[in-house]
TrEMBL record:
<dbReference type="GO" id="GO:0032259">
    <property type="term" value="P:methylation"/>
</dbReference>
<dbReference type="GO" id="GO:0008171">
    <property type="term" value="F:O-methyltransferase activity"/>
</dbReference>
<dbReference type="InterPro" id="IPR036388">
    <property type="entry name" value="WH-like_DNA-bd_sf"/>
</dbReference>
<dbReference type="InterPro" id="IPR016461">
    <property type="entry name" value="COMT-like"/>
</dbReference>
<dbReference type="Pfam" id="PF08100">
    <property type="entry name" value="Dimerisation"/>
</dbReference>
<dbReference type="InterPro" id="IPR012967">
    <property type="entry name" value="COMT_dimerisation"/>
</dbReference>
<keyword id="KW-0808">Transferase</keyword>
<protein>
    <submittedName>
        <fullName>Methyltransferase domain-containing protein</fullName>
    </submittedName>
</protein>
<keyword id="KW-0949">S-adenosyl-L-methionine</keyword>
<keyword id="KW-0489">Methyltransferase</keyword>
<feature type="domain" description="O-methyltransferase C-terminal">
    <location>
        <begin position="120"/>
        <end position="331"/>
    </location>
</feature>
<feature type="domain" description="O-methyltransferase dimerisation">
    <location>
        <begin position="28"/>
        <end position="97"/>
    </location>
</feature>
<dbReference type="InterPro" id="IPR036390">
    <property type="entry name" value="WH_DNA-bd_sf"/>
</dbReference>
<dbReference type="InterPro" id="IPR001077">
    <property type="entry name" value="COMT_C"/>
</dbReference>
<dbReference type="Pfam" id="PF00891">
    <property type="entry name" value="Methyltransf_2"/>
</dbReference>
<dbReference type="InterPro" id="IPR029063">
    <property type="entry name" value="SAM-dependent_MTases_sf"/>
</dbReference>
<dbReference type="GO" id="GO:0046983">
    <property type="term" value="F:protein dimerization activity"/>
</dbReference>
Length: 352
C-alpha cells in the first residue's frame, strides 16, 4: 500500500504535511489499533489471510462495526486488503501478533488507560507548571507511582505496559558489556523486576536487589521473583526518604532519573555514590532527547507525560545533562553510550 500523500496531479507533497495529516487523525487510529489488538485480529491473521465473513466469526463484532474497524486499520497500512481478503502487513506480523510479556498489546493498552487520558489536560498542566492531570487519580501523593497504590488493578496494567516496553528496549543495556564484571547489582526503581530478571538470566554470576516502593515490590514478588530463586531479591523503600541498601558493586537507574528535576537527580546519584565501593559504577539508562532538543517522538511523549501526569517535572534529558550531574555527584570516567534503540542512552560513572 502506497502511503505517500499526493496532490491533485499525483505529485508527492511535503513530508511534514503528510505527517500533519497522520497526526491530526492519530488519536482515533491509535484507538482502532488497540481495539484490533484486544480483539486479537492480528493474531488471527498471522500467516492466514481471512475474508470479511471469517473475521466476523473471529471477532464477534456486528458486521457494520467490523467494516468500520477494518477500514480504519487498513488506512494505517497495518492491515492489507487483497482480492477481498485481509492480511497482516510485515510490520503487523512482526510487532503485533505476539502476546508475551513484551507485547505491544500490553504497552498500548497501558498507554490508553493511564497515559493518554491525561494528555487532554496538557495545556492546563503546562500552564500550571505541574502535573494537574494527577487529580483524576484518588489520593494525595505527589506522583502517579505512589497514587496508583490506591488502584491496584490499574497499577498492574501500568506496570505490565512499562515492563513490556522495557523488555523491548532493554537488550542494549543487557548487552552493553557493563555487567561482565558486576556481581551484585542494585536496581533502583526497578519496578516489577523485569530488567533484573533479564540481566541475571544473561549474566550467570550476577545477583540483583530491586529497590522500589512497597506496593510495586509486592508486585515484583508476585510476578518476577518467584521464577528467579534467590538471584533477584526485592527491597521496598522510598528513593528519597529511605537509605539505599549497601553491599553492591553497581547501581542501576533504569528509566528512573528522568522522572525528577536536575537537583533531585544529583541527590539520587550522590546517594548511590555513598553506598558504592571505590571502583563501583553507576549506570543511568533511559531516553535521551537529541542534544539540540528537536528530535525524538518517544522522548517527547515521555517528557509530556511526566510533566502532565507522572511527577510534574523531569524529561528525557539530553546526554550532556546526565554527564554534568554525574561529575557533580563525584563520579569519574563519565561517558555515554549514545544512539541506542528507542532513543535510549546509557550514562556511566565510576566512583574514584
Ligand atoms: C518508569 S518506572 C521504571 C521501572 C524499571 N526500572 C524499568 O526500567 O522498566 C519508574 C519506577 O520508579 C519507581 N519509583 C518512583 N518513585 C519512587 C520512589 N519515590 N521510591 C521508590 N521507587 C519509586 C516506580 O514505582 C517505578 O517502578
Amino acid at each position: 500500500m502506497d502511503l505517500t500523500v499526493t496532490n491533485g496531479s499525483g505529485e508527492p507533497v511535503d513530508p511534514v504535511l503528510e505527517r500533519f495529516h497522520l497526526l491530526v487523525n492519530a488519536p482515533a487510529l491509535f484507538n482502532a489499533l488497540t481495539t484490533a489488538l484486544e480483539l486479537d485480529l492480528f493474531t488471527a491473521l498471522s500467516g492466514r489471510p481471512a475474508s470479511f465473513d471469517e473475521l466476523l466469526g473471529t471477532t464477534g463484532l456486528p458486521p457494520h462495526s467490523l467494516r468500520v474497524l477494518l477500514h480504519a486499520v487498513c488506512s494505517t497500512g497495518l492491515l492489507v486488503r487483497r482480492d477481498g481478503r485481509y492480511e497482516n502487513s510485515g510490520v503487523a506480523e512482526e510487532l503485533l501478533t505476539g502476546d508475551g510479556p513484551d507485547s505491544w498489546r500490553d504497552i498500548l493498552i497501558g498507554w490508553r488507560e493511564v497515559y493518554y487520558p491525561a494528555f487532554a489536560r496538557l495545556t492546563e498542566a503546562l500552564e500550571a507548571g505541574t502535573n494537574t492531570a494527577l487529580s483524576a487519580f484518588p489520593g494525595h501523593e505527589a506522583t502517579l507511582y505512589r497514587r496508583l497504590a490506591h488502584r491496584p488493578e490499574l497499577e498492574a496494567v501500568f506496570h505490565r505496559a512499562m515492563t513490556a516496553f522495557t523488555l523491548r528496549s532493554v537488550d542494549a543495556l543487557v548487552d552493553s558489556g557493563q555487567f561482565l564484571t558486576t556481581r551484585r547489582l542494585l536496581d533502583v526503581g526497578g519496578g516489577d523486576g523485569a530488567t533484573s530478571a533479564r540481566l541475571v538470566a544473561r549474566h550467570p554470576a550476577l545477583v540483583s536487589t530491586v529497590f522500589d516502593i512497597p506496593t510495586v515490590s509486592r508486585l515484583a514478588r508476585r510476578t518476577t521473583a518467584p521464577d528467579l530463586g534467590d538471584r533477584v531479591t526485592v527491597h521496598p523503600g522510598d528513593l528519597f526518604t529511605d537509605s539505599f541498601p549497601e553491599g553492591h558493586d553497581t547501581v542501576l537507574f533504569s528509566h528512573v532519573l528522568e522522572i525528577f528535576s536536575g537537583e533531585q537527580i544529583v541527590t539520587l546519584l550522590a546517594k548511590a555514590y555513598d553506598v558504592l565501593p571505590s571502583g563501583g559504577r553507576v549506570l543511568v539508562y533511559g531516553y535521551n532527547v537529541s542534544d539540540d532538543e528537536t528530535e525524538g517522538w518517544y522522548s517527547a511523549r515521555l517528557s509530556l507525560y511526566l510533566n502532565a501526569l507522572a511527577s510534574g517535572q523531569g524529561m528525557a534529558y539530553p546526554a550532556c545533562d546526565y554527564e554534568r550531574w554525574l561529575r557533580q555527584a563525584g563520579y569519574g570516567q563519565v561517558r555515554t553510550l549514545k544512539g541506542l534503540p528507542y532513543e535510549h542512552g546509557l550514562h556511566i560513572g565510576v566512583k574514584p
